[in-house]
Amino acid sequence: MKRRDKINYYLDIAQTVSGRGTCLRRNYGAILVKNDEIISTGYTGAPRGRKNCIDLGFCQREKLNIPRGERYELCRSVHSEANCIISAARRDMIGSTMYLVGTDAKTGEIVENATSCAMCKRMIINAGIKEVIVRDTPDEYRVIRVEDWINKDDSLASEFGY
Q1: What are the sequence ranges of the domains in the chain?
Q2: For a designed S-S bond to 20, which of 7, 42, 43, 57 qualifies (C-beta 3.0 to 4.6 A apart)?
Q3: Contact indicator for 123, 42 with CB cutoff of 8 Å
């Protein structure tokens, strides 16, 4: 029996966390790990006390045919990365690794080319997280150095054409 490698082990846990998501389009699961210890988890869902899309029976962004990656301000949910960060102390997050998995709510398939939105990237940077590892297939993943998000400031790209 072949033992699961550590990165996919943590991505498997993040994928399980995504199963708690309440979005009708895509659910993400995130976990933060430091020194080989899980320090927090987060999944996609409406703010505490508000109804989730699964409770309402519709997704506002889907109703409006808004493409993936656009107009997140119309989404009811708090993203998994944000929920994960909210649940941890900054002193514990500095130098940590975030593991992120997205699944399609209808098919259960892993979301292709998943990445954090601009707001989540900003929170990840400020939290002091070192890297984000994103699942692409059940066994393949990408390692993103948060330092690269700092150096390639995408908030300037649209405004200044970088």
Answers
A1: 6-160
A2: 43
A3: no
What is the enclosing helix (H) or strand (E) of 32?
strand 26-34
| Residue 44 CB burial class (10 angstroms; 0-12, 13-18, ≥19) | buried
155, β-bridge pairs: none
Here the tokens at position 143 are: 């390692």
How is domain 6-160 classified at the CATH fold level? Cytidine Deaminase; domain 2 (3.40.140)
Q: Return the structure tokens found at 145.
A: 């150095």
Whether the CB-CB separation of 43 and 77 falls below 8 Å is answered with no
Write the DSSP string, 91-143. Answer: HHHTT-EEEEEEEETTT-PBPTT----HHHHHHHHHHT--EEEEESSSS-EEE
Q: 83 near 48, Cβ under 8 Å?
A: no
pLDDT (tens digit, 9 = 90+) per residue, 48-93?
999 988 998 888 888 888 887 778 777 888 999 999 999 999 999 9
Pairing of strands 26-34, 141-145: unpaired
